[in-house]
Amino acid sequence: MLEWLGERGTYRIEQCLLDVARVAMQINLVKESTLIQGEVRREVRNLVA
């Protein structure tokens, strides 16, 4: 969402904020992946690695 807002040119998004948002998103994906099972878990893990 932040990237989209920055690309539209209506908002100025600092790079450090984008970096923090990406890391937070990856952490959330890893945390949520513990709730899924089997093959899907492996696929998610490979996507975020």
Features:
single chain, 49 residues, mainly alpha, 3 helices
How does this structure look, described?
It is a single chain. With 49 residues, this protein is an all-alpha fold. The protein has one domain. 76% of the residues lie in helices and 0% in strands. It is built from three helices and no strands.
The geometry reads as elongated
List the secondary-structure elements in sequence, H or E.
Answer: HHH
User: What level of helicity do the residues show?
Assistant: over 70%
Number of DSSP E strands: 0
Percentage beta strand: under 5%
Determine Rg (CA atoms, Å): 14 Å
Low-confidence parts, pLDDT < 50 over ≥5 residues? none
- Helix and strand content put the structural class at mainly alpha
Distance between the termini: 22 Å
**Integer average pLDDT:** 83
| Tally of separate domains | 1
Largest sheet: none
Number of helices: 3
What is this entry, summarized?
The protein is mostly helical and 49 residues long. It has helices spanning 2-8, 15-33, 38-48.
Topology:
Elements: H1 2-8, H2 15-33, H3 38-48
Helix pairs in contact: 2-3
